[in-house]
Write a structure and sequence with these properties.
Elements: H1 6-35, H2 38-41, H3 56-66, E1 74-76, E2 83-85, H4 92-101, H5 106-131, H6 138-150, H7 162-167, H8 170-192, H9 198-213, H10 215-224, H11 235-262, H12 277-280, H13 286-302, H14 307-323, H15 335-353, H16 355-365, H17 369-393, H18 400-404, H19 412-418, H20 423-431, H21 440-452, E3 457-460, H22 478-487, H23 508-517, H24 536-545, E4 548-553, H25 556-563, E5 568-574, E6 577-582, E7 589-591, E8 597-599, H26 603-615, E9 624-626, E10 638-639, E11 658-663, E12 667-672, E13 679-681, E14 689-692, E15 694-700, E16 704-709, E17 713-718, H27 722-768
Parallel strand pairs: 3-4, 8-9, 8-10
Antiparallel strand pairs: 1-2, 4-6, 5-6, 7-13, 11-12, 12-17, 13-16, 14-17, 15-16
Helix pairs in contact: 1-6, 1-17, 3-4, 4-5, 5-6, 5-8, 6-15, 6-17, 8-9, 8-10, 8-11, 9-11, 11-27, 13-15, 14-15, 16-17, 21-22, 23-24
C-alpha cells in the first residue's frame, strides 16, 4: 500500500534540492545590487560616463522625431552636419528605453536598460547549461562564473563585461546575453525537429532582438550556431535552423537591408586587429584560462553530448579572432565570446574539483551526494561574490578626489579619471549623473547660453579635461540640453559637430580633420585618415566652409590663437572654456562662386580624394561633384583624382540670391533667384535625400549635397529608398508568418480540450451501456 505522506516527502526533498541554487543566485544578485546601488539606479539623474553619457541625444531623436511618425530610423541634424540615426547603429535598447518611459521617468528607464544585459547574463548562463542538458549542479556553477566574467578587469571597451557596459557598450551587453539564450533555445528547438510552434516563434523573436542590438554579436552567432548540428544531425534540425534564420532575417530586414546596402555611406574604419598572445590571454586571466583547459579535458573524458557544441563554439570564436582581416570589424569585439566560453569551461572544471568537498559534506551531514555538490556550489558563489565585491571596492575612496582635487590644485579632469578605476567607482561616476558632478552648474550655464544664441552649429575643441562634466563627450549633448531649453521657451535647439556614433557619419572624417586643426589634444578618431597638426587659421577656414557658427575652446593655447584671428569674436567665458562666434559662415545653402568639377571615382575612393581637396584652403572655392552618370552633370568639366588639388576655376556670374532657408529635422526648404546655378547644401549627403524643384541631390565635396534649381522654391526631404521598401516588405512577411503560426497554435490549443471532452463522453456512454 502506498504511503500517503510519500508525495509530501518527495515534494519536500525537491524543494530542499533547490535551496542551494537559490542561495547561489541570492549571492550573485546581492553582489550586483551592492555594486549597482539602487539609490543610484532609481535616482532622477541623467546618466553620464564614457559613450553612455552621450546616448541621450539619439534617445531624444527617437522619442521626439521618429517614433511619433512610426519610424525607427531617420535623419538627425544635431551631429556631424546631419547623420542617419539608427541606420548604422542598433535601435533595440533605445526602443526598450522608450517603451519603459511610458511607465517610469526617462532617467530611470535609461539606467534600467543600460544594466539589463549585465543582470540577465547569470540567469542566461544558467538556462544555457540547462537547455544543453548538462547535469546539475553545473548550470548553477555556470551562472556563478558568469558573474566572474562580468567583473573581468583586464579590458574596458570590447563588450560583454561591466566595465565595457559602463563605457557605453550596453547594446552589445544586451545582445551578448541574448545570444546565449538563443543558442540554448535553438538547441532545444532543433532537438524537437521541424515543429513550427511557440518555441520557433521565440527563437525568431530572439534572433530579431540580437540583430537589432548589435551586428558584431550577430556576426559571431552566425558561426557559433552551426555547432548545434554536431549533436542534432537530422534533416529536420537543419530545416528548423534554416526556418529560424529566414524568418528572423525577414523580421529585421527593415533595418538590416538598408544597413548592408548603405554601409558605403558610413565612415569607413580600418581597424588594426589584435593578434598578440598577451591580448588574448592577459596575465590576470591566466588562472581562469588554466581552469578552462582542465574543464575541456574533463569534458573530453566524460563525452557529454551537450558539451560538443560548447567545444565547437570555443574553437570557432578563437579562429574568428585570428582570421578576421584588418577592416570594419575589429577582432577585439569577438574576444569576449572566447573569454566567456573559458569561464564556462572553468565552471565545468570546478564541478570536478569540488567532488572531494562534496563527499566530505555527504559524510559529515548525511546528505545525498547530489545535495552535497549543490551546497558546495552555493559556497563557491558566496566566496566568488566576496572576491568581486572586494576587488570592485578597492579604490572607491578615490572618489574623494573629485571633492578635494581643487583644494589640492589638481586638474579636475585628472581627478575625474582617478575616480573611475574600478567597477564600483565607475558605477558611482556614471549613475550619479551629470547633475551629481561638482561642475554641473558651470556646464548647465554654458548649455543655456548656447541655447540663447542665434541658430548655428557648434564646434568643440577636444580635450580630456571635458571629462570633469561627467564624460569627455559632454558637449556632444549640446543638441539634447538646448532642445530641453527650447521646449521650455528658453532658446533654440543647437546642433554640434561631433557625436558618439562617428562610424554612422559620412562627414565624420572631415570633422575630425577640423578637430585636429583646432585641438591641442585631438582624438583622431577615424582610423585610416591622415590628420594635420594644430593649425587654427586653416581650421577656422574649414569651419566657415562647413557653416559652423560657434567654436568652444578648452585650452589656453588654442583660445589665444583664435582670439588673434579677426574672424572670431569672443562671446562668453567660463573658467578655461571660451565660446567664439565665427564670422562669414556660409549658411546652409550657398550659391556656388565657381562651377564645380566632375570627379568619376569608385565610391570607396571618394573619401581619400576629397580629403586631398580639403587639405588646401585655396582649392575650396571649386567644389568636386561625384559623377555617377546622372543627368545634369555633363555640362561641368571633368577632372581626375590627381587633379583635385588644383582644380580649374570657372567663375559663375550671377546676381541670384538665396532667401527664406528653413531647416527642420528632415527637410530643408529655400527660395532662390539663381535658377539653373549649382547650390551648395551644407548638409551631409545620404541617398535617402530627395529634392523637388531642382536637379539632384548630388554628392559634393567634402561630404555635402549639391542641387541645381529648376524653379524658385526648392524642397529637400529625407525619404525612402528601394532598400527601405524591400526591407519593410520582408518585415511584414516575417510578421505574417509568426502571426500565422501563433494563430494556428491557438486553434490547436482550443481544439485539444474539446477532443478530451469528446473522449470522456464516449467512455461514459460505453460504461453506461
Amino acid at each position: 500500500m502506498r504511503d500517503p505522506n510519500s508525495g509530501n516527502r518527495a515534494s519536500g526533498k525537491r524543494v530542499w534540492d533547490w535551496i542551494p541554487t537559490l542561495v547561489a543566485f541570492l549571492a550573485i544578485y546581492t553582489v550586483l545590487f551592492i555594486l549597482y546601488r539602487p539609490n543610484l539606479l532609481f535616482s532622477l539623474t541623467t546618466t553620464a560616463g564614457g559613450d553612455t553619457g552621450a546616448y541621450h541625444y539619439p534617445m531624444q531623436v527617437l522619442m521626439k522625431d521618429l517614433l511619433p511618425h512610426f519610424k525607427v530610423t531617420g535623419w538627425a541634424p544635431g551631429w556631424y552636419a546631419g547623420m542617419p540615426m539608427f541606420t548604422f547603429y542598433f535601435p533595440f535598447a533605445f526602443l526598450l528605453i522608450a517603451v519603459l518611459h511610458w511607465i517610469i521617468p526617462y532617467q530611470i528607464a535609461f539606467k534600467i536598460v543600460t544594466v539589463l544585459g549585465v543582470f540577465a547574463l547569470p540567469v542566461v548562463a544558467y538556462f544555457f547549461a540547462r537547455f544543453f542538458r548538462i547535469r546539475r549542479p553545473y548550470p548553477t556553477l555556470a551562472a556563478v562564473f558568469a558573474l566572474g566574467f562580468l567583473f573581468m578587469l583586464t579590458y574596458s571597451i570590447y563588450g560583454g563585461n561591466v566595465l565595457s557596459t559602463l563605457a557605453g557598450e550596453f547594446s552589445y551587453m544586451l545582445s551578448f546575453s541574448c545570444s546565449f539564450l538563443f543558442l540554448g533555445t535553438m538547441y532545444k528547438g532543433m532537438e524537437r525537429g521541424s515543429r513550427f510552434d511557440r518555441l520557433f516563434v521565440v527563437n525568431c523573436l530572439l534572433l530579431l532582438l540580437i540583430v537589432l542590438s548589435h551586428i558584431v554579436t550577430t556576426f559571431v552567432l552566425a558561426f557559433l550556431v552551426w555547432g548545434l548540428l554536431l549533436v542534432h544531425r537530422q534533416r529536420r534540425a537543419l530545416l528548423y535552423l534554416a526556418g529560424v534564420g529566414a524568418v528572423g532575417f525577414a523580421l529585421s530586414a527593415f533595418w538590416s537591408i538598408p544597413f548592408l546596402v548603405d554601409l558605403q555611406w558610413s565612415a569607413k574604419m580600418v581597424w588594426p586587429q589584435l593578434h598578440s598572445l598577451h591580448d588574448l590571454l592577459p596575465a590576470a586571466f591566466l588562472p581562469v584560462a588554466g581552469l578552462g583547459l582542465i574543464g575541456m579535458a574533463y569534458a573530453a573524458v566524460k563525452k557529454g553530448a551537450g558539451l560538443v557544441p560548447l567545444m565547437w563554439m570555443t574553437f570557432v570564436s578563437l579562429v574568428l579572432i585570428y582570421a578576421l582581416p584588418n577592416g570594419r570589424l575589429w577582432n577585439a569585439r569577438v574576444m569576449p565570446f572566447f573569454w566567456f566560453f573559458l569561464f564556462i569551461w572553468a565552471a565545468y572544471a570546478v564541478l570536478w574539483l569540488i567532488g572531494p568537498f562534496s563527499r566530505v559534506f555527504h559524510s559529515l551531514f548525511r546528505v545525498s551526494a547530489a545535495t552535497a555538490a549543490r551546497i558546495c556550489v552555493s559556497v563557491v558563489a558566496v566566496l566568488l561574490g566576496l572576491v568581486v565585491i572586494l576587488t570592485s571596492q578597492t579604490t572607491v575612496v578615490r572618489l574623494e578626489l573629485q571633492a578635494v582635487g581643487g583644494a589640492l590644485g589638481m586638474d579636475r579632469g585628472v581627478a575625474s579619471k582617478l575616480a573611475a578605476e574600478t567597477p564600483a567607482a565607475v558605477i558611482e561616476w556614471d549613475y550619479s549623473g551629470f547633475e551629481g558632478k561638482l561642475t554641473y552648474e558651470e556646464y548647465r550655464q554654458m548649455n543655456d547660453f548656447i541655447a540663447s544664441l542665434p541658430p548655428g552649429r557648434v564646434m568643440v575643441e577636444h580635450s580630456q579635461r571635458i571629462e570633469e562634466f561627467g564624460t569627455d563627450r559632454a558637449f556632444e549633448l549640446i543638441p539634447y540640453w538646448t532642445e530641453l531649453d527650447a521646449n521650455q521657451g528658453n532658446g533654440v535647439a543647437q546642433p554640434t559637430m561631433e557625436g558618439t556614433l562617428m562610424e554612422s557619419s559620412f562627414t565624420a572624417p572631415f570633422h575630425f580633420v577640423n578637430q585636429a586643426e583646432l585641438s591641442k589634444e585631438p582624438s583622431d578618431a577615424i582610423i585610416g585618415v591622415k590628420y594635420p597638426s594644430l593649425n587654427v587659421s586653416q581650421g577656422l577656414t574649414h569651419l566657415q566652409l562647413m557653416n559652423i557658427a560657434y567654436l568652444l575652446t578648452v585650452t589656453p593655447d588654442v583660445a589665444s590663437q583664435v582670439k588673434a584671428d579677426k574672424r572670431a569674436t569672443l562671446l562668453g567665458t567660463w573658467g578655461n572654456y571660451d565660446l567664439f562666434g565665427i564670422a562669414d559662415a556660409t549658411g546652409y545653402v550657398q550659391v556656388m562662386q565657381n562651377e564645380p568639377v566632375r570627379l568619376s571615382v569608385a565610391q570607396g575612393q571618394w573619401r581619400d580624394t576629397a580629403l586631398k581637396w580639403y587639405e588646401n584652403p585655396s582649392d575650396l572655392t571649386t567644389a568636386l561633384v561625384w559623377d555617377q552618370g546622372q543627368r545634369g552633370l555633363e555640362r561641368f568639366k571633368s577632372v581626375s583624382a590627381d587633379e583635385v588639388t588644383d582644380p580649374p576655376v570657372t567663375p559663375i556670374h550671377t546676381s541670384g540670391t538665396v532667401t527664406d532657408v528653413q531647416l527642420t529635422d528632415d527637410t530643408l526648404t529655400f527660395d532662390t533667384t539663381a535658377i539653373g546655378v549649382p547650390h551648395w547644401i551644407k548638409v551631409s549627403y545620404f541617398p535617402n535625400w530627395h529634392v523637388k524643384g531642382a536637379e539632384g541631390p548630388y554628392l559634393v565635396s567634402p561630404s555635402f549635397m549639391m542641387v541645381i534649381p529648376t524653379q524658385g522654391h526648392v524642397i529637400l526631404y529625407f525619404g525612402r529608398t528601394m532598400a527601405n521598401s524591400v526591407g519593410q516588405g520582408l518585415e511584414a512577411l516575417g510578421w505574417l508568418v509568426l502571426v500565422g503560426i501563433s494563430g494556428w497554435r491557438v486553434v490547436l490549443w482550443r481544439r485539444k480540450p474539446s477532443r478530451k471532452s469528446d473522449l470522456s463522453t464516449d467512455r461514459s456512454e460505453k460504461m453506461s451501456e
